[in-house]
Amino acid sequence: MCFRFKSKIIAISSVVEGPTAKAYAIEICKKFSNERIKGIFVRSRKVFAPVEEIVGRKFVKSDSIGKNILFFFDCHIVIRVHLMMYGVIHVYKADEPLLKPMDRVRLMLIGDSRKIVIYNAPIVEIGLRDQVLGRLKTELGPDPLSDEWDEERVYENITKFREEKIGIVLLNQSVIAGIGNILRNEILFRVGVNPERKVGDLSPEEIHKIIYYAKELSRQYLELKIQGKRIKDILRVYNRFSSICEICGHPIKFYRQKPINRKTFVCENCQR
Ligand SMILES: [Zn+2]
Known about the structure:
By secondary structure, this protein is an alpha+beta fold. It has helices at residues 18-32, 129-139, 151-159, 166-169, 181-191, 204-226; strands at residues 2-5, 8-11, 39-42, 46-47, 59-65, 68-73, 77-82, 88-93, 105-110, 114-119, 123-128, 253-257, 262-266. Mean pLDDT is 93; it is low at 1-13. It is elongated, with a radius of gyration of 20 Å. It is built from 6 helices and 13 strands. It starts with a strand and ends in a 6-residue tail after the last strand. It folds into 2 domains: 2-139, MutM-like, N-terminal (N-terminal domain of MutM-like DNA repair proteins), CATH 3.20.190; 151-266, Helicase, Ruva Protein, domain 3 (Orthogonal Bundle), CATH 1.10.8. The strands form 3 sheets. A 6-stranded mixed sheet has the order 2-1-8-10-9-3, with helices on one face. Helix 3 packs across helix 6 (204-226). Zinc ion binds next to loops.
């Protein structure tokens, strides 16, 4: 996944988690602010508002909610993009040729001096702002990178799933928005909790620590993204195949947690 500005390609990550979506939104704000939309191209089945109304409008800002990237204009229409694994956003000068073939383009917003092109994104939704935001608010839990982060609500959200494994609950976007596989592995390592533990078996202190690190690690992850650095600096277990735990020296175990089948890394000595 990468950003392309002028001739520079900035690597973002192979998987979009909340901090990656936020970093994209921040970059788009910088590179596309005050552009007036002269043309739009969209290839999506999720068009629920008259697209042509965006033409002639000003781009106001981009922001993220969880893993969703939103585009706001000075009208009642919003565009929501979810990049999942394969989506990429490029920003070009308005007259610059595209780097990838047109059949990969899901959305193109042409401004006065620049254009934003989104390739391969599985979700591009165009809808009425209040409806889209209202729905996201209902479907998603609090976002650690938002001003509306609400620890009490997150605590309630987690403890609703007493019978489920914490490693699985953390990926549920209705519990916390924006936590992906990297963050859930790193959070549970920091807290010393095994992903197989059931929520009902966790102490309140352990749950509070999980909530603390959900925010703290999201913040650190975003900071690295903004600085254009690799997130390796915060990875203490994720993708550490055949390495040893930096705390106790035990081997880090890799497996795929069932039934979600996601890559899971754990120090079974530190994470009980
Ligand atoms: Zn350890």
